[in-house]
Automatic annotation (TrEMBL):
InterPro entries listed in its UniProt record: LemA-like_dom_sf (IPR023353), MamQ_LemA (IPR007156)
Membrane disposition: Single-pass membrane protein
SUPFAM superfamilies: LemA-like
Cellular compartment(s): Membrane
Protein name: LemA family protein
Record-annotated membrane-spanning stretches: 6-27
Keywords annotated in UniProt: Membrane, Transmembrane, Transmembrane helix
Length: 185
């Protein structure tokens, strides 16, 4: 072998190594992009279910107000908590949003507890339907939250220090909101 042949073989091996390195980097980048997309899609599902819950609350408040107009504090607390949750949805930061959602959940729980003391309201079909729809939206939001957290966990596990990728935060329910939901009818 002559010096020119060795240089040509070395250059070919170097090119092959660069091609393999580029392929590995592209595959890693694509995997992270796919995992990031899965997390973003899962987050959209949470938002859809929370939006559904926000949409049901005015009907629920109106229905309770017809049967229990003097329960103004509970009604106003739900309206204020809904407004806070919707404002937090527009702001950045999962911690603030989770806290606002927790406040809304507590206010709804108090309102439903108040509703329990009114037999006519408890048996009103529209109220019962709203309770079921609200419960279903909350169940779907909890399921979507679980899917989101799994997607974030997968993303963070695959995360590498590549430009444009950062760790994502989990959506955590505040305080006692991590246990099972108990519906009282």
């Amino acid at each position: 072998m002559t010096g020119g042949t060795i240089t040509a073989v070395g250059g070919g091996v170097g090119c092959a190594l660069l091609i393999v390195l580029a392929a590995v980097l592209a595959a890693t980048y694509n995997r992270l992009a796919r995992l990031r997309s899965a997390a973003e899609t899962s987050w959209t599902q949470i938002e859809n279910q929370l939006d559904r819950r926000y949409a049901l609350i005015p009907d629920l408040v109106d229905t309770v107000q017809r049967y229990a107009p003097h329960e103004r504090a509970a009604l106003e607390a739900v309206v204020a908590a809904r407004g806070g949750a919707m404002a937090a949805a527009q702001a950045s930061g999962l911690t603030r949003r989770a806290e606002a959602e927790g406040t809304l959940t507590q206010a709804l729980g108090r309102l439903l507890a108040v509703a329990e003391t009114y037999p006519d309201l408890r048996h009103h079909q529209h109220f019962v339907t709203l309770q079921v729809e609200l419960s279903n939206a909350e169940d779907r939001a909890a399921y979507a939250q679980q899917a989101y957290n799994t997607a974030v966990q997968d993303y963070n596990a695959a995360f590498r220090a590549l430009p444009g990728f950062r760790r994502r935060d989990f959506f955590r329910a505040p305080g006692g909101e991590r246990g099972p939901v108990h519906a009282r009818f």
